[in-house]
Each structure stands twice: as C-alpha cells, then as structure tokens.
Amino acid sequence: MKICFITSNPQIDYIKPELEKLGELSVHDKQKLSVAEVVALAGESEVLIAGSSGIETIQSDLIDKLPKLKLLALLTVGLDWVDVAYAKSKGIAVCNIKGANAESVAEHTWGMILDVAKRITEFDRDARLKQAFRFNDYKGKEIFGKTLGIIGLGDIGKKVARGAVGFQMRVLGLNQSKKLVPGVEVVDLAQLLRESDVIAVCAPLTPQTVGLISAAEIAQMKPGVILVNTSREEIVDKVAVMVGLKTGQIFGYGIETTIMKPLPADDLYYSHPRVVVTIHNGFNTEDADQKSYELVAANVAAWVAGRAQNLV
Fold first, then answer.
1. Which string of b and e fits 288-301 if b means at least 16 CB within 10 Å?
2. CATH 3.40.50.720 fits 102-278, yes or no
3. Domain residues of the chain, as ranges?
4. Cβ distance 75 to 49 under 8 Å?
5. What is the pLDDT of residue 184?
6. Which of 42, 225, 248, 280 has its CA at 20 to 30 Å from residue 61's CA atom?
7. In the CATH hierarchy, which top-level class contains the domain 2-100+286-304?
C-alpha cells in the first residue's frame, strides 16, 4: 500500500516508523500544489495524508485523477477546502483531526481578545515605528465581569468559554445543535449580538455560516464591541467590519486570514490600527503539531485495521 503525505514543513520524524509499518511512505514538503503536481506525487497512492498548506483544495477534478485512492486523511479540522461528499461518493473514506488543535486555537482567541482590549499590538507597533509613548492615546477596555458571546460551541468554542471563568464573565453561546454547555447560556444570534461586550467567532465555515456577520448583524451589537474571528474569514463581512471600526461600533477586530496567503500592503485590514491580523496561525504550536500528527497517524492505522475513526 502506498501512503503519500503532502503538507508544508512536515514535522513527522516521530510518526514515520508507525506509518512505514503500514505501507510505502513518501513525504513531500510542498505548498499549494496544483492538481497536476499532486497527481505526479500521489497518483498511485491508496492513502493521501494532506494539509491545506500543501494542497490548497481537493475537489472532484483532483479526486478523479487519483483512481487508487481509498483514504483521505486530512491534517486539518476544517473541511471547507475538500469536497467530502464527492470523495465519499467515489468510495473514499475521509477523516480529520477533530480536537487536535482546539486548545491552541482557543488560546489564540483569548490572546486576540486581550490584545484588542488592551491595544497591545497597536501600541507596540506605534512605539516601534512612530516612537509613540503617550498612554492616553491607547486607552483600552477591561473584560472582567463583562459578557462574552461565542458563535459556535464546538471543541474550540467550549474551550474559549472555559477561559472566561477566570474573568468572571457571563457567557452566551450560539450552538447549532442546541445542546446545553456547562457555564454557557445557549441563546439565539440576536440576543448574543445585543448583549455581548466581546464576541468570538468559533464556528466552522459552511454554506450556512458564510456572511453570518454582516452590516445588519454589526448594527445589532453593543457600541464598542470587541470582535474576534479565529474561524474562517468568510464568516464575517470584511467591509462591514471596517465600517464598524470607523464608526466606533466595533472597538477592535482580531482576524485569522487564509493559510499561507500573504495580504497585500494596501489590504483593508491594514488601514485601521485596531485590527490585529494573523495569517492562519492560531493552530500553530508545538503541542498542537504533536497532537495533530499523532492523530492523523492513528487515523490511518485505525482505517488499515478496519476500525476507521474520525470519519466525516
């Protein structure tokens, strides 16, 4: 059995022996490969382990050119870059690494909340580049005792909610399943927008969540709200956020943008000092790397053993 592993900067020495026991392994450090480039590397493989930094998208045109493929083991939690339904229609099993990087993304979410609230990056940037030092120009907000709204109460959202305990915050949550979450008041979107001082977007990107937060939703928020999106950029309307920042409806915005894709110097996000941008880095810790690689190897081993896990 041939196993092809494609991602940017793979750190897999400690799981290579396990994968090599399962089949003939090839590992490729690549970025944003085209269909033809993937086929050249994985055309004969039965198992493809892939990260979205290595293969930007896996759609029907690529799947049709991998006739021997039986397992697609994703090195991601998100599925928006893969046509899962088409793969499954071709008899290909698809699994992900659900939960492996949730702690890292939740911590990144809190890092952005505190950064925006206290204007840390903004002041640091101006101190370095403009010799700024006047504290009155960088007045922030406390979050202690305020209300946190979490859009999406999955693995990440639940961990973000846990972090609110130390700040004695009231926590509101939007949960598609409507399941109760300890310490969280599960509410509808309108109430969450209306009552939250801080809003964290932790929902997956789906057809239902594209554009979930637009000008109409921002208008319902408290004036001076802190908004952080560590999910997918497309969930929050970019232009509407920038307008909200200019009017003061939004105090500051933290955003994770597309993986391995630079923003131009004149990007809208860079036009406002209270926007903190990371280029899809919330998942990126030593701890999450280890958990992610170990889980993807375990997923392949489980499938080979006939007890597939983490199927999507």
1. bbebbbbbbbbbbb
2. yes
3. 2-100+286-304, 102-278
4. yes
5. 97
6. 280
7. alpha beta
For 86-115, what is each residue's pLDDT tens digit? 999 999 999 999 999 999 999 999 999 999
The answer to whether 26 touches 41, Cβ cutoff 8 Å, is yes
Domains 2-100+286-304 and 102-278 belong to one CATH topology: yes
Q: Residue range 143-167: average pLDDT?
A: 97
For 238-258, what is the mean pLDDT?
A: 98
| Alpha-carbon span 28 to 241, nearest angstrom | 38
Look up residue 10 and give its amino acid.
P
Average pLDDT of the residues in 271-277: 97
Q: Quote the CA–CA distance of 205 and 309 in Å, as a whole number.
A: 22
